[in-house]
Amino acid sequence: MLLCEQLERRFGGPAGEVAALAGVSLRIDRGEFVVIKGPSGCGKSTLLLTMGGMQRPSRGNLLFLDQNLYEMPAARRNRVRSKHIGFVFQLFHLIPYLTVRENILAGLPPGDSSRLPLERVDDLMSELGLGHRALHKPGSLSAGERQRTALARALIKKPDVILADEPTGNLDPVNAAYVFRFLGEYHRSGGTVVVVTHGQDAAGYASRTLHMASGRLSADPPPPETSTTSGHDSTPTIAAKG
Amino acid sequence: MTWIQLLLREACHHWVNTLLGGFGLAIAVALLVAVQMTTEAAERETRRVMRDLGFNLRIIPRETDMDHFWDHGFSDQTMSEDTTRKLAAQHGSFLSFNHLTPTLEGRIQAGDRPVLLTGVGETLVGPGEAKQPMGLRIKPGQVILGSGVAARLKVKRGGLIRLGQRDFTVDRVLAESGTDDEVRIYGALADVQSLLGTPGRINEIKAVDCLCLTADQDPLGKLREILEKTLPEARVLQLRTMADARAKQRQSAERYSEFAVPLVLLVGAGWLALLTWLNVRERRVEIGLWRALGHSSSRIAALFLGKAVLLGLAGAAAGFALGTWIALEAGPGIFQVTAKSLSMDPTLLLWSMLLAPAFAALSTVLPTLGAVSQEPADTLRAD
Predict the structure, then answer these.
(1) pLDDT band (50, 70, 90) for residue A240
(2) Pairing between strand A18-28 and A2-11?
(3) What is the secondary structure of B309-325 as a DSSP string?
(4) Which of B289, B291, B300, B307 is the best residue to mutate to test the A interface, defined by the most A CB atoms within 10 Å of its own CB?
(5) pLDDT tens-digit profile of A211-220?
(6) B192, B71: one domain
(7) Across the strands, what pairs with A67?
(8) Chain A interface disruption, residue of B12, B287, B293, most A CBs within 10 A
(9) Which ipTM was obtained for this model?
(10) Of the partner residues A54, A102, A109, the one whose CB lies closest to the CB of residue B292
(11) Which of 3.20.20.70, 3.40.50.300, 2.30.40.10, 3.90.190.20 is the CATH number of A2-95+159-218?
């Protein structure tokens, strides 16, 4: 489903160039639940955003459903993203002036909301414990409710893959468990999940766990002295199971 | 949710920004409407005041003895009455002057003393000029008396006065003016031609230089150029002080408009661009999110431009009402002579409704393009 080939992403800054991705190769198959772990600043969010077609790599290819995402025109990439990829962010990123229900509907590809059976939105809100909050705006929700709304927004279009960037980073343990339970259910129903996190709460759900340090991926956790700065080149890149 | 619903929902959510944007536009439109209305009022007022000042160009026969002219106040030579129509028929004549009035002046005995007698013919005005001519309108068989003559002859309005072999009805007596009008009698041109024994002749055309030309464009030179080609038998004199007053008044009104309009536009554009920039800055994450959700840059840009257009429409309507109210409230106190002609101008509403949204959208283009050209990841990453 997702194939990363030698992805590199460099950012310029006052202190010089930083390699957020230093040649990442990775394959994710349909139905996997992949957890990418690593310390802050190691490049895992950059990898996730690059996989989601939101951050053009400096070098390398990204194939999604056998199409090179960054070789297609921006409009087509938008369509692929809106139809096949669901995102969940650490900071929720809900539209502040829309209700819970409208925020969830905003996750549908542009123009698709009119074709959606309304029961599906209601069912999803009920499943996620948001039924009583349908007409509330994000400003009046708790952090857990906000993240569940973001999760519903990602799930509403039944995407091929959900990319979650630290989805529980701002949640208490109860809500964090709630979020992972739903991601797990989505995975069990055949969905593909990629979660970036530096916590341990995804351990029970992952079909594969990868570790990231200094812009590189490894199947094994890095040794304790691993630096998070660029230029670390001893960690081999890996390809996921086939 | 439709595009317009989304737009309105956002506008309500960021109501302070929306209100400030609409308020800024309304103020800009109000100032422009008020400036435009008062500028037009000032021009009307200027025309009216200048008209009341009287004629400032005198076209007389070329062969006039100037010593006699300055000594007696009129030319000793005459020219055909048709000269006025010939002059008016020249292409471009009314670019340099307007209100051509043929006159014939001379002296005649009234009672025991001579008085100045002036025959006033039909005034010709340029295309588009007000129909009401300047100066006096006198019916045949009637006269208008200067206050000195009336007092000496002891006649009042409606009375009779004998000139030559004819009796004339006194149409009215002029108020005391402190000029040689005190000892002047005005009559219809044909009557005066008959009294002075010069039928079909005039000895002066009175005119006003046009407000269309400024002093540096030399209205006198332009008029002399026209006369040289078409009426070599005539010459033109300009009452300099009055001409300068006209030019200064007109230039002052122009400078006011030239200063006020760009200033208002500049401040309005800057204000709106600043607000849009702040709005875009506040909504960077939202823009990134819409893009992450697959919405095209053009659709997102349309949200910002659409908001600007809506604000433009609302600002235009409110600004027009406010500007009109300001002009109608303040105008009559400033332009006392033409106060009654100040009124609401629907064409200004039309222009406001067309230009304010376009202007608002233009001010918004740059911040919007900057926002939608960003990678979504730039605003959505958490680390």
Answers:
(1) very low
(2) antiparallel
(3) HHHHHHHHHHHHHHHHH
(4) B289
(5) 998 899 887 6
(6) yes
(7) A64
(8) B293
(9) 0.82
(10) A54
(11) 3.40.50.300
